[in-house]
Write a structure and sequence with these properties.
The protein contains 8 helices and 13 strands. It is α/β, with parallel strands linked by helices.
């Protein structure tokens, strides 16, 4: 576990917030606790955080709205939702906003710690295969800086978009199996993670839409394939 990991805890329940903050600090994390949306906004824009623990039901500004705002300001910031809600619609909405994980109340501190550590490893750790820079048709993909460039146009990618595109590049013109991508990037292979990945695939298709020679094929029930007509794409970086 990264002893210097800084967490923004957004939780309006005073007792729960105190317990979670106290336990996480005993584990070695640095934690700032916001009790409502406005306080969370002040902390977010004043400090840099590695992970956000976000309660969904908040006074003043709800967790979904807050997450959308924070993700617009910092697309790569990892978010774990803390929620008493278990409705499928709420989870899908959260994943569409880019949430990395859900923890349903009541939860144990052991579970929360494991989820934070798994998330930190997925988001900030390096994938074990592939390089740092790729050419995809007319695009240049800089994985390390999470940028996709076409001529003088630069598209900033989220962490998950960059990780998913990197795997597709590593497997270019081959099938990237769904279960492999889900396990490497989401850490699990279930319905909600699968729906989340489908959302990110759609986003990548949009980002790559200006080159008609580039496509991401959906092989139903199997996986995805990044194809470039004429196989013009190549890796330009070195393996890590």
């Amino acid at each position: 576990m990264d002893q210097h990991c800084k967490i923004l805890l957004v939780e309006d329940d005073e007792n729960l917030g105190f317990v979670v903050k106290d336990n996480l600090e005993e584990m070695g994390y640095e934690v700032a606790h916001a009790r409502d949306g406005h306080e969370a906004q002040k902390l977010f824009y004043k400090h840099e955080f590695d992970v956000i623990l976000m309660d969904v039901m908040l006074p003043k500004v709800d967790g979904f709205e807050l997450t959308a705002e924070f993700r617009a300001a910092n697309p790569g910031i990892p978010v774990i939702f803390l929620t008493a809600k278990s409705l499928k619609e709420d989870r899908i909405r959260g994943f569409k906003l880019g949430a990395d994980d859900y923890v349903t109340k009541p939860f144990s501190m052991e579970e929360l710690q494991l989820r934070i550590e798994a998330l930190m490893k997925r988001v900030y750790g390096h994938l074990q295969e592939g390089g740092k820079s790729f050419r995809i048709g007319r695009y240049e993909f800089d994985y390390e800086n999470m940028q996709l460039r076409l001529a003088d146009k630069v598209q900033k990618l989220t962490q998950k978009e960059a990780e998913l595109l990197r795997l597709l590049c590593v497997k270019q013109n081959e099938v990237l199996k769904r279960e492999k991508a889900l396990e490497l990037i989401w850490g699990e292979n279930d319905y909600f993670a699968g729906r989340s990945m489908d959302v990110f695939i759609s986003k990548l298709r949009k980002h790559l839409s200006e080159d008609p020679d580039v496509s991401i094929e959906n092989l139903h029930g199997v996986g995805f394939k990044l194809s470039v007509s004429g196989d013009k794409s190549k890796e330009t970086g070195q393996a890590e």
